[in-house]
Structures are given as structure tokens and as C-alpha cells.
Amino acid sequence: MSDYSASPLLLQAEGLKLRFGGIIAADGIDLSLHEGEHLAIIGPNGAGKTTFLNICTGYLRPQGGSVRFENREITAQPPRQITRLGIARAFQIPQLFAEQTVLENMLLAVSVRERHWNPLRNLHAVPERREMEGLLELVGCSDVRDRVASELPEGKRKLADIAIALALKPRVLLMDEPTSGVASADKFDVMETLMNALRQAKVSSVFVEHDMEMVSRYATRVAVWAQGKIQTTGAPEVVLNDPDVVRNVIGG
Amino acid sequence: MSRKSLDAFPDHAVSATAAAEAPWPVRRRHREKYAMNKELLAFIIVAVLLAVVPFTFGTSTTFIAMSLAKGLAVLGILILLRAGQVSFGHAMYFAIGAYAAAFLSSAFRGIDMLLLIGAAILASGVAGAIVGIFVTRYRGIFFGMVNLAFSMVFYSILEKAFHITGGSDGMRIRRPTLLGMELKRAEFDIAIYYVILLFALLSVWLVWRYLRSPMGEALRAVKSNETRLEYVGLSAKSVLLGGYIASAVLCGIGGVFMGMVQGLATPEHAFWTRSSELVFIAALGGPAHVAGAFGGTVVFEAVRTYAAALLDDSWQLILGVTLIVIILWAPGGMVELFRRLTGLDRAKTLTPEAGR
């Protein structure tokens, strides 16, 4: 496994603290992402993994600590601003524009990216239409291109959600259990397609995952999140064989 | 987003689909074009029919002029319905349009009609922007109620400040000149009819284009998923504000026309029943298509006028029953009924209300 610490730093969280009532979600979290990395975050349910994504995208304001993106302070900026800087997000429960077709979802996203605000031009006439169709092909959603988003099967919804995030040409993609909801027989196919798409588009990623097989295959680095702290971080083959991790996270 | 990341997607990912997409999208584009031509044809036919009204049904000229003026306001309501929002206070902008004309025409004798219209657009647009900044924080019932509150405050001011606004008697709007020409009563009625028609056709075209543009599609996204909207980098509030200002301006234009046709601006124009009347008509006509706004207004006004002639005080009853029927069996309004009857509903997706 190659070492990415020499490549440019993209995302850097330092000393993040956040608690909800008595629950400590983050208690001094330091985590960074370098260009080209695919960082998996694992840990027990309710440990605060999704909270981390929420803080990074500005949805939640941490009680302490900071998040930097390409050396720019982004802590607690509104999500739309952070998105425009180049951090896109895919959700555990897919967030689509339910009334519109999958292609229209993409075209709307790309219109925001390119600031196409001419009120007289049809959404379908934006010049990036081909690019969006190509992207749908890339994530395996071409077959549902013209279907209304609310009618899609769960697996396709998940992929469409990721496609929308990719339509923004992000530098970093944050994913929350990218293959949950996908039929288990298709999981690896979907993840394979997805990671290929990310590599082709040169997008780095952070993904929260429960499936260790998935983590060992696709992550370049793993961070173990438990009790509001990063217990260990390192290459998957090392971390996943660490007896402490096996006992506390995987086994338990 | 940085320049560097814009180059992130390689071209071969794009060109891969160009070959694969050949056969059926071509057919689809044909069908779309065909459907659009039919719509354009219908638009032209209706425009021509309306243009000859003063020569064929001269007695209904004023009736249709007033319907078109109100239809413009309903078109404004329709924009907000796209975002899933219902305003119970838009009659305020209608009144703002009428009063802008009233103030100007009492201050400057023989002022031109186009200036009055310009003033109404400006006044309603500015008012829409100011009020919009507050109300676009709210959604659903709260959005409707906050709008209602603003409009009723405005209504009270119009009524109470009688030394400025003439109180409940309102203000006269003197007959304006048109492009410098002084017009007699009968000439003016014809002239203003054509001006209203022109503005109505222009507005229909503009709104139709707007609702299909990225901005208009983003309005639908306000209704379906604000979280995703925020996470593609867009503020739902500003999208809604854009739609809100557009709707306020349309109501303002409707108001100035109504005021000029009647020669009067009264606080009554801003009263809440007028606001809900606009919403009623929008629901009757159907929010899925711009034609619904005007179709709904003509039916509404016709029922009100002719039912009153047939049977005293029956029009509320008739319209009430009509609305119940529409809500229960055709939630997409007259537009949906029309599509069902003509079999067009398979070609286009209906509003989700219709699907429920």
C-alpha cells in the first residue's frame, strides 16, 4: 500500500469536540486526508462517524477544534459554501430531487456548479449535458436516466446520490455507507464501479463503512472511531488485524 | 471550487456515451419538439382569438381585460406553488400595483400609462424583495400566515391613513395617456385591453421559460429536497426569494391593470379574501401549467358574473362545490382534467399532487 503523506493535504480536522447532552460524539478528533487517499472510518454504531461528516460539511458546528480544507479555515461555514469549495457529500439515506428525473437532478447540480442562472434557458440545454450523461454511465445509472427520482429502486437511488455529488466536480467526496441499501449480491460490483469512477475523476474520499471486507479492499487508510476518539489509524491490513480493534470494533 | 478541480473529469468518460445514446433519444427529441409545437400552436391560436375579441364580442372586452389582469396575479401564485408554498397575502402586491398608479396619476396629471406600469413593477418588486427576505425563512403554513400578516397590516394602513390613501373609499386613478395620446373613454378601453393582452402573453412566455430554466427547476427542488439543494451549493432561501419577487411583480402588474380598468384603487384590493381568491383560482386552474392560471381565472370570473345573474348569491356555492370536486377528483386542476381528456398526461409528468 502506497504512502500518501507526501501528497498535498486536502482536509484536516484538528481537536474536534462535540457532545450531545451526555453523549460524547467527538472528543479531540484529529484526522486528515491527503490527495489520492480513500479513508475509511469504522467503529461501533453511534460512535460519531456521521457526526464527523456533518461537522466537515458545516451542518454541525463543533464545540471545539477546527476543520481546514486546502489550508483554508472552513469550520462552521454553511454547507453550500463548503460544497462550492470542493467537498461534496453523499448520504446514508439518498437525498434526491424527488420530482425530477435522474438526469435533471444532475443538470441542476451542474447548473449550480457552472452558475447557469439565465432564466430563459431550458435546463436541458445546458452545455454540460453530455458530461452529465457520461457521469451517469460511469456510475451505472444510464438506464434510469429519464426516470423520476422518487421511483428509483434503493440501489439506484444510492448511486444517483453519489452521481449528483460527483457532478459538482469535487476534490473530496464524503460518503456515508455507500453500499448500504444495495442488494448484497451487487455490493462489490457497485463499490468497484464507484471506486473506479473516483479514481478516474481524481476524487479523494472519506467513507463511513461497516463492512470490513469492503474496507480492506477499497480503503487506502482506515481510522477506528470509538468513544469520541480515533483509536488507531493506518493501512487496512495492519489495522484490521490489530487484536484490540478486532476485539472492540469488529468482533464486538 | 478551484480551477484545478474543474479539469478533474477526463473527456473519454464523456465521449463513451455519445455513440451509445443514438436511437431512442432522437425519437424522444422528436416527440418533445412535436409537443412543444402543439403548445406553441395553442398559444398562438388563443392569442389571436383574444386579439379579435374587441371586434367580435365587444361587450366582453372589459370582462376579459379584468380576467387577464387577475390572471397575471394568479400566474404569480403559480410560481410559488412550484416551490410548494402557498401565500395568503399576495393581494398586497396587487394593491401596491394599483396604489402606485393612483399616487402617480394624482401627482402628475396626464401621466403616461407605461410609466404607471413601470412604477407598479418597481414598487411591487421592491416590496416583494423586502418582505421576501423575512417570509422566505418560513415554509408551509407559516409561510402562508406570515404573508397574511404582512398583507393585513398593509390593508389596515391603507384604511386608516385616509388623509394619504383616501381611506376605505380608495383613490381615483385618472385615465392615463398612452404614448402621449389622450384617449377618450371608449378608445381607452380598447387600448388598455391590448396592453393587458400584450403583457399577459409576454408574462406567460417568460414564466413558462423561467419554470423550465435551472432557476425554475430549483424552485421545485425547494419543495422536494432542501437538504440536497444546500449540498449542491445553493441556498433554498435565495431560490425561493427569486420566485417570490417574480410573483410579487406579476401581482403588481395585475393590480395596476385592474386599477386602470376600474379607475380606482381601494384597500379592498389588499384584503385577505382577495389573496385567498388568487390561491383558489390557482388551485382551480391547476399548478402544473401556466395556462391553468388564465383558464382558471376566466372560469372563476364567468361563474361569478353569470351565476349571480341566474340566481342571487349562488356563486360562492357553485364555486365552493367546484373546488371540492377538483380537490377530490382532479387535484391537478383544470390542467389535469384537460390532459386526461386529451390523453396528454402520458407524455408529460404531472404534478406530484396529481399522483397522490
From TrEMBL, chain A:
<dbReference type="InterPro" id="IPR051120">
    <property type="entry name" value="ABC_AA/LPS_Transport"/>
</dbReference>
<feature type="domain" description="ABC transporter">
    <location>
        <begin position="11"/>
        <end position="252"/>
    </location>
</feature>
<dbReference type="InterPro" id="IPR003593">
    <property type="entry name" value="AAA+_ATPase"/>
</dbReference>
<keyword id="KW-0067">ATP-binding</keyword>
<dbReference type="InterPro" id="IPR027417">
    <property type="entry name" value="P-loop_NTPase"/>
</dbReference>
<dbReference type="GO" id="GO:0005304">
    <property type="term" value="F:L-valine transmembrane transporter activity"/>
</dbReference>
<dbReference type="GO" id="GO:0042941">
    <property type="term" value="P:D-alanine transmembrane transport"/>
</dbReference>
<dbReference type="GO" id="GO:0015808">
    <property type="term" value="P:L-alanine transport"/>
</dbReference>
<dbReference type="InterPro" id="IPR003439">
    <property type="entry name" value="ABC_transporter-like_ATP-bd"/>
</dbReference>
<dbReference type="GO" id="GO:0015192">
    <property type="term" value="F:L-phenylalanine transmembrane transporter activity"/>
</dbReference>
<dbReference type="GO" id="GO:0015188">
    <property type="term" value="F:L-isoleucine transmembrane transporter activity"/>
</dbReference>
<dbReference type="GO" id="GO:1903805">
    <property type="term" value="P:L-valine import across plasma membrane"/>
</dbReference>
<keyword id="KW-0547">Nucleotide-binding</keyword>
<dbReference type="GO" id="GO:1903806">
    <property type="term" value="P:L-isoleucine import across plasma membrane"/>
</dbReference>
<dbReference type="Pfam" id="PF00005">
    <property type="entry name" value="ABC_tran"/>
</dbReference>
<dbReference type="GO" id="GO:0005524">
    <property type="term" value="F:ATP binding"/>
</dbReference>
<protein>
    <submittedName>
        <fullName>ATP-binding cassette domain-containing protein</fullName>
    </submittedName>
</protein>
<keyword id="KW-0813">Transport</keyword>
<dbReference type="GO" id="GO:0016887">
    <property type="term" value="F:ATP hydrolysis activity"/>
</dbReference>
<dbReference type="GO" id="GO:0005886">
    <property type="term" value="C:plasma membrane"/>
</dbReference>
